[in-house]
Inverse folding.
């Protein structure tokens, strides 16, 4: 015969009359004790109501403190971790301060002959700004044997951009004009330079060097005053060593 399966019955929690009676007995005892306590404290409440309020606040605070215990523990753990991180960051910063910073690499010393072409070489002076052009002319002077070469151009130079002593001991004063092809050096430029190069700077040889050219009146004035004009073609020839040095062209006679 086929046996019929019966579903297992879930056993519920059995009613315990004894435990229930004990529970209600304890509850009644607690209520009676609270009643007696309230009755006994009633006169005290009337005399000292502030103390009652304080006791209630203490009780509420105790309950809240117990309920937030885990939260306080979590906050304490977070505070401890933050303190450890702060201590580590402080140690790292102190170590960085104690480590000496690497010394900066010294800048390369600039000499007057930086970028100056040797004899037979070509050089594009159009790539230079006015200050670099003055330094390049000073470099040519150094290359060709001049001594005490100085770049003195700037505000208040009174026309002298480069000063030097030629190999034979004469004082050389040079004015540099970094001009474009369409801007020639005029007679007014020569007159201003002529008024200071000999009387103020004490030149034995005065040069005006330009990347452009000179107007005819400027050349005429220069010939009258004994100023040597070095235009673009003459500059390239000097730079390439294809011509005598410009200070050999003439000297001022007092």
């Amino acid at each position: 015969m086929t046996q019929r399966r019966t579903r297992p019955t879930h056993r519920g929690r059995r009613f315990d009359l004894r435990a229930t009676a004990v529970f209600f007995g304890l509850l009644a005892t607690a209520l009676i004790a609270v009643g007696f306590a309230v009755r006994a404290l009633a006169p005290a409440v009337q005399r000292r109501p502030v103390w009652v309020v304080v006791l209630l606040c203490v009780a509420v605070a105790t309950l809240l403190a117990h309920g937030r215990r885990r939260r306080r523990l979590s906050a304490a753990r977070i505070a401890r971790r933050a303190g450890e991180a702060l201590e580590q960051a402080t140690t790292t910063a102190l170590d960085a301060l104690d480590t000496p910073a690497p010394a900066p690499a010294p800048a390369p010393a600039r000499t007057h002959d930086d970028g100056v072409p040797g004899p037979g070489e070509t050089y594009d002076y159009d790539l230079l700004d006015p200050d670099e052009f003055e330094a390049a002319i000073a470099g040519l002077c150094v290359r060709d044997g001049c001594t005490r070469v100085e770049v003195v151009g700037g505000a208040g130079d009174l026309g002298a951009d480069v000063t030097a002593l030629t190999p034979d001991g004469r004082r050389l004063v040079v004015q540099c004009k970094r001009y474009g092809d369409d801007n020639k050096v005029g007679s007014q430029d020569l007159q201003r330079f002529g008024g200071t190069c000999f009387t103020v700077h004490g030149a034995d040889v005065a040069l005006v060097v330009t990347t452009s050219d000179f107007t005819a009146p400027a050349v005429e004035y220069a010939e009258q005053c004994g100023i040597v004009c070095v235009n673009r073609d003459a500059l390239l020839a000097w730079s390439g060593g294809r011509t005598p040095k410009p200070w050999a062209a003439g000297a001022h006679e007092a």
